[in-house]
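Course assignment 3, question 2. Fill in each field.
Student: A.L.
Task: Predict the tertiary structure for the chain below.
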Amino acid sequence: MSNSTHRVQGLNNDEVAADWPAITDREITWLSERFAPLAGACRLLWHSPRPMSAAAIVESDTGRVFVKRHHGSVRTAAGLGEEHRFIRHLADHGVPVVEVLRDRDGATAVEHEGWTYELHGVGHGQDLYRDAPSWTLLTDTAQAHEAGRMLARLHLASASYHAPQRSTHLLVARDDLIRAADPIAALQAGLDDRPGLVAYLARQDWQADLQRAVLPWHDGLAERLQAEPRLWAHNDWHVSNLLWRLDGRSTVVDTVLDLGLASPTSALFDLATAIERNAIAWLALESGEAAVRVDIA
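Answer field:
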């Protein structure tokens, strides 16, 4: 399924061939028959370098549209609907999220030839981190403060949102293991639904690895987390998922992007994820203290 002509960001902050082929004019033509914002002549302007799905910005006679495509084994239209309803709630409560577009039948996601598509309006603001490799450290403390302020605003809006757990465990965030009194038993219990994970774990003594590297840190945590309220959270809070604008001499968040990992975890989990994403260079841990920005955290 790899496409040698489309390059994306790799896990070594390098450029690699994409696992998913780039979105094509043929696909845009099919989508234009369903989505009014793609009516008329369309032109592909940009393909996303992010590796987990295929996305593009398309210009039509009426403006620009963000098109995202998932493999049907990763996302269904119903599964995306869970994410889209949360986005709608956030928008209704004042969080500056992107607009999810509906097709001629009112659907916010459609399936076609094994793929699942969603269309968003192009968010307001500048994508300051478009060309930065994923998972790189934030170095601007003022932007870190602003990102934290917006995350708190999202949590306040989310407090009134109530929905079940996501219907998929693929490419969504969960905090079930860290809440579990026995993470090894909890992981073992869920393996029947995760054949890919079973194949990976079969190559190593994973129980011993977790006993050594994780459980000493986990001791007592599950009991403390029982008092942590469940909250639908972003779960992927990195500055590359934010658009920015100048407000006087300050740079402020203008649009919140990419709620693909959103699920009911907690505000604490979301904050810890934000610290990990922005203040810890987890692809360069061998550099020691240089891999951590305490001032950003």
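Instructor remarks: The chain has a mean pLDDT of 91. Residues 141-291 form one domain.
Grade: pending
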